[in-house]
Amino acid sequence: MKVSPPVKPGTRVAKGARTRESILRVAVNLASVEGLEGLSIGRLADELKMSKSGLFAHFGSKEELQLATVEMAREIFVAHVIRPALTKPPGMPRLWSLCQNWLEHVESRVFEGGCFFTAASFEFDSRPGPVRELIVQAMRKWLLTLSRAVEEAQKAGHLQDSVDPQRFAFEVYSLAIGAHWGHQLLGDRKALSNVRGTILGRLRALSTASCPPLRKAG
Amino acid sequence: MKVSPPVKPGTRVAKGARTRESILRVAVNLASVEGLEGLSIGRLADELKMSKSGLFAHFGSKEELQLATVEMAREIFVAHVIRPALTKPPGMPRLWSLCQNWLEHVESRVFEGGCFFTAASFEFDSRPGPVRELIVQAMRKWLLTLSRAVEEAQKAGHLQDSVDPQRFAFEVYSLAIGAHWGHQLLGDRKALSNVRGTILGRLRALSTASCPPLRKAG
């Protein structure tokens, strides 16, 4: 993840960074609804009621805008899903927190169009180029975060050692994107809570006797 | 599924139907790679080296073309995934055959860009209109086919009665779209065979003593 250097508040640079950030938040929502490929500088200028040349000052091309939008989406995802889970003790509670936060951020419409990355993944899977690469990178990081959490749960003695961390992370990942799909496409209001139950059932079935109790939030 | 009436071979109508079908097969592949929204009459005319007016004779608008493309994709899916499974005895063998054919049609690139419907689902989940409705309809039919196969496996005494057919169909569905995603986006060659193993493991874990043995094909 590219992290910009801190900017001094009140300066012109700070104002530029704030504007850029607020533009990108709109871009993320627009892309989550209409797709990243639909995100042109013209379309975004319409949405923001800004001039195209004003936007060009921030992003030199459509591709640059798409890349910055993916990075902003990743920052929002880290803030809503990953960071809060890191406050939980490593082990099953953290793994379960990652899963819950992930489902919750779709349920509470952090991105207007549902899960930004699931949509972007399927949109760009057959479009080679830097945008696809950045999406792949973000998804690999997320799968790595999940499989590390599985390993930590094993080290903490909460999860059976026979579980393959990468495969299990992938299984949990798949169940969650299925839920996003059911929620978003079929309008199935129970999709997310059903899948929350399925994941919890899998975690409990594979847990050890020393695993702390896991509960559904809410 | 709309089924066209049979046409007499050699007639002008038959030729028109054949042309329409071969145009739609190209459209399906194009849409599986570039997305359904990218499928305009102009783009398709380029690909087919046909005139736009020739294409307009078959499809009056972009939306009509998109709808016909979704219907053709559904016919191809039924022919490759559902119909061959119906030759298996109802019960676990048929359920497992549906899952295997589904993964196999992605592996063997029946659609150039991977799984047509998974991609279309995520592309159109936030775009209301007739195209989205037709995709939703196709996906509901597919989930119904899966959950009926789960019920049949229970009636045949192969699968534990405690399994909820709809939820289990959804779980299997989610695992498979996860596999399509890993295969297509991450280029993970093992994604499909890993998920085949995960689904087989789930089916075996929930099967009864009278379930016939299930094997991985290939």
Briefly summarize what is shown.
Two copies of one chain form a homodimer. Chain A is mainly alpha-helical and 218 residues long.
CATH superfamily of the domain at 66-206 in chain A: Tetracycline Repressor, domain 2
| Topology-level CATH name of the domain at 66-206 in chain A | Tetracycline Repressor, domain 2
Largest sheet of chain A: none
What shape does the CA trace of chain A take? elongated
Number of helices of chain A: 9
SSE pattern of chain A, N- to C-terminal: HHHHHHHHH
Distance between the termini of chain A: 31 Å
Q: What structural class results from the helix and strand content of chain A?
A: mainly alpha
CATH class of the domain at 66-206 in chain A: Mainly Alpha
As an assembly, this protein is homodimer
Portion in strands of chain A: under 5%
Number of strands of chain A: 0
Helix content of chain A: 55-70%
Radius of gyration of chain A: 19 Å
The most extensive contact between chains is: A-B, 42 and 42 residues
Tell me what you see in this structure:
The structure is a homodimer of 218-residue chains. The first copy, chain A, is mainly alpha-helical. Chain A has a domain at 66-206: Orthogonal Bundle (Tetracycline Repressor, domain 2). Chain A is 68% helix and 0% strand. Chain A has 9 helices and no strands. Chain A has helices at residues 12-34, 41-48, 52-58, 62-85, 92-107, 116-124, 130-155, 165-184, 191-206. In chain A, helix 4 crosses helix 5. Chain A is elongated, with a radius of gyration of 19 Å. The first copy, chain A, starts with 11 loop residues before the first helix and ends in a 12-residue tail after the last helix. The model of chain A has no long low-confidence stretch (mean pLDDT 88). Chains A and B meet through helix 1, helix 6, helix 7, helix 8 and helix 9 of A and helix 1, helix 6, helix 7, helix 8 and helix 9 of B.
